[in-house]
Specification:
Blueprint lengths: L1 E7 L5 E10 L6 E11 L2 H10 L7 H26 L8 E12 L9 E5 L2 H8 L3 E3 L3 H5 L9 H8 L6 E6 L2 E7 L9 E7 L2 H11 L8 H5 L4 H7 L15 H4 L1 H10 L5 H24 L7 E5 L6 H10 L4 E4 L10 H14 L7 H4 L9 E3 L6 H7 L4
Parallel strand pairs: 1-4, 4-6, 7-10, 10-11
Antiparallel strand pairs: 1-2, 2-3, 4-5, 6-12, 7-8, 8-9
Helix pairs in contact: 2-3, 6-10, 6-11, 8-11, 11-12
Amino acid sequence: MLVVGLMSGTSLDGIDASLVKIDGFGTSTKIKVIKSTFLPYEQTLKEELLSAMDKKRSNVEQICSLNFKLGYLFADGVKKVCREADIPLSQIDLIGSHGQTIYHLPNPLPPLTKSSLQIGDPSVLAYETKTLVVSNFRAMDIAAGGEGAPLIPYIDWLLFRSKRKGRILQNIGGIGNCTVLKRNAKKEDIIAFDTGPGNMIIDELCRTLLNIPYDANGEIASQGKVHHDVIAKLMDHDFFKKSPPKSTGREEFGREFTLKMIKNFSDLSAKDLIATATYFTAYSIAEAYKRFVFPEAKIDEIVVSGGGGNNKTLLKMIQSLLPDKKLIKMDDLGVTSDEKEAVGFAVLANEYIYQQKTNMPKATGAKEFVLLGQLTFPPYGDQKKLLTKTLLT
């Protein structure tokens, strides 16, 4: 099948779209990435999303509008990747869309209920592309008692397990998350959890203090001084005291956390704050491995993906904290760092069509393995024929 995977992460940069040819399912899955592209968010939209994620500024009218606005943008992402691949939209069999997370409540206090909200309405996407859509991948895991995150560990296992090497696949987007694959790992062996902040605090410091979107290549951090006394205070956050399974998001490490950091350490320069925040990400990743991974598995290499993989200063810091481990980029395994998650949602959509259970209870805390995703048909046509076309009989 030809499947387009769509991802928009916590960094709020824009939409990653990957067109993937997929043969088979489960452990027989074979993929070929035909084309990947990126559709950046305009600054005004990014500000709208940041506002919608902020409890003090958010409102229902804004969220209602954004849900459909993003649906059209996701459709634009599908059309763009097809256009760049020179493949007619009509030849696409399936779309897998993660949507845009605007709030994640894995462990709320009463009277709130465990939940997660991704927007970007799949009906708009299905209508605009006239294609079958699988979306809302987190909900069923939460219904089964899990946190609905992380979602990518199944893909990591399916595509990157090795008989000879123990691997940690570390994604560094807005939030950092890792998948631990022991040598010759079985599905039941997977360990996965969020490690803490990725680029989120660094980006917010750049926006607030320097009026730039992010620290390109870690240049600013490389010029600043890391304040280890500040690191010790930041690591006192409750999230780091929890054992996996665990997940986090902008609710804990977003704008509110960053503004508090600026206020509490107002004597530090912008460069020093950014350097310290970068080290905080590196240190939280290394500490997570030392506490929860290395006692359980022999690790030969750490494979980095996501936007953080482009931050040279961050990678140097991680390597300095883990000097005896080999650090490589996802690109070395045949999928680029930037496209990995979009490719992942193409594969998850394919797995849903074949009724494969793709959550990882050991990673999310769910009671059992369940199907992830919901199906949205295009606005007209023979639904039986559509399902037959996508190999479900």
